[in-house]
Amino acid sequence: MFTIGICDDRPLSRYLLEALIHLYEEEKDVLFNIYEFSSGEELLAEIEKQGLVFDLLFLDNSMKKLSGLETARQIRQSKSTSACSIVFVTSAEDHDQFMQVKPLRIVSKPSTQEHIEAILEKVLAKP
């Protein structure tokens, strides 16, 4: 099953993303495993603890301790998680800073159904 992670320190932002993903699931009659994390530290700890491997990861950049960019760097350095598609969902205006971790996409907050649908279509079309 396709596994998606959502990492944002704001519960409302996580809820919005999950709701948009669920709308896609209903429209396309698909089902995803969705995990939510409130910090980069929590995400990385659960990857280590449970051996989670994500097909797609939505990351906020501005979080309390570990930024989304630093979280993505650590994910890219691990053999087991480096192939994960990463989407930054951020209010940051400087999108160039994210290019070093080769994100699939950078989306400005708030996300829209069109953004999420386009992202999901792209990752599901991968061989």
Automatic annotation (TrEMBL):
Keywords: Phosphoprotein. SUPFAM superfamilies: CheY-like. Residues 3-124 form the Response regulatory domain. The modification 4-aspartylphosphate is found at residue 60. The keyword Phosphoprotein applies. Gene3D superfamilies: 3.40.50.2300. PANTHER family: RESPONSE REGULATORY DOMAIN-CONTAINING PROTEIN, STRESS RESPONSE REGULATOR PROTEIN 1. SMART domains: REC (SM00448). It holds the Pfam family Response_reg. Signal peptide: none annotated. The keyword Zinc-finger does not apply. GO terms for biological process: phosphorelay signal transduction system. May play the central regulatory role in sporulation. It may be an element of the effector pathway responsible for the activation of sporulation genes in response to nutritional stress. Spo0A may act in concert with spo0H (a sigma factor) to control the expression of some genes that are critical to the sporulation process. This is Stage 0 sporulation protein A homolog.
